[in-house]
Amino acid sequence: MPIRYSTDPVNRRLVTRADGVVTFAEINAHLDIEQRNRDLDRPELIDARGATTRPNDSAGASTRPTCGEHAPPCRTRGHGDCDDR
């Protein structure tokens, strides 16, 4: 797997490194591991300088816009969830 992480006990955060071609499925697998290890709530420092993606990797990828792309309109309308349109 081109994504691996360890725990920095001094700073109480995750240190993650991604190398090579990283697919959407591998990102999901990494998050699944963090969830199983109960690490999702920890701050995370990610070094992806050596990583690239496949632009046409549609294995599980969604073309639906992310919440971040809709955050400003949602905030101005006062909605807490960006799916409330």
Number of strands: 3
Biggest beta sheet attributes: 3 strands, mixed
Radius of gyration: 16 Å
Low-pLDDT windows of residues? 70-85
Number of domains: 1
Pick out its properties:
85 residues, alpha+beta, 3-stranded mixed β-sheet, globular, disordered C terminus
What does this structure look like?
- With 85 residues, this protein is an alpha+beta fold.
- It has one domain (3-77).
- The chain is built from 2 helices and 3 strands; from the N terminus they run ββαβα.
- It has helices spanning 24-36, 67-77; strands at 3-8, 13-22, 44-53.
- Strands 1-2-3 form a 3-stranded mixed β-sheet, with helices on one face.
- Strand 1 and strand 2 (13-22) form a beta hairpin.
- The longest helix has 13 residues, at 24-36.
- It starts with a strand and ends in an 8-residue tail after the last helix.
Topology:
Blueprint: E1 3-8, E2 13-22, H1 24-36, E3 44-53, H2 67-77
Parallel strand pairs: 2-3
Antiparallel strand pairs: 1-2
Summed up:
With 85 residues, the protein is α+β, with helices and mostly antiparallel strands. It has two helices and three strands; from the N terminus they run E-E-H-E-H. It is 28% helix and 31% strand.
